[in-house]
Amino acid sequence: MNYYPKILPFYMTYPMPLIWEEEDTVMRDLEYLQELYPRQAKKYRKRIEELLERFDSEGSVLYDEYPDRMTLYKMAQDIYAVLEQEEKREQAEAAAVAAAPADGGEVSTTGDRISAGAAMNPAVRTAETAPLLGPESMELIQVLLYGEIFRRRQKRGFRKF
Questions:
Q1: Using one digit for the tens of pLDDT, what is the confidence trace for 21-60?
Q2: How many domains, the chain?
Q3: Residue 76 covered by a domain
Q4: Which of 150, 144, 145 has its CA nearest to residue 23?
Q5: Which of 105, 102, 101, 127 minimizes the C-alpha distance to 116?
């Protein structure tokens, strides 16, 4: 008969640091993959992150165990309205710059003046004439908002389930 208890190695007696390390790896992977987002999605993500700062406090709806769908939808609508105003402002500024006499500029098919650099670079041309936010942008904003809420809950160590 064996009177000695089964001896466990040290790493088996305290497995928690391995779990925390795995969570850190998951968050690093998430941040890396967010850096691979397309330019417009990355721009929206950074702005959503800034706008969520005002909601980020103890007892906020962000940290409810089960956040209310309508509250989150209203939050996404508010962010959408802010982003739409910023897009309109950017387009008005771009139109003001385009209306100024530019030496060596071309006139596009819509009658807008395009600088010489923009005429050579199609990416700049499409950025100048990019449409305002559409219904698919609202869905993108919701997805980015929910992802940012998830990231903040993980960062804060939210564990109520």
A1: 666 788 888 889 989 999 999 999 999 999 999 888 888 8
A2: 1
A3: yes
A4: 150
A5: 105
Q: Is residue 15 part of a domain?
A: no
Instruction: Spell out the alpha helix ranges (H) of the chain.
Output: 10-13, 16-35, 39-52, 69-99, 116-120, 122-128, 135-156
Answer yes or no: are the C-beta atoms of 79 and 48 closer than 8 Å. Answer: yes
- pTM for this one? 0.65
Residue 141, judged by CB atoms within 10 A of its CB (0-12, 13-18, 19+), counts as buried
Element (H, E) at 114: strand 113-114
Of all helices (H) and strands (E), which one includes residue 113? Answer: strand 113-114
Residue identified by tokens 């982003």 is 83
Range of the domain at 113: 23-156
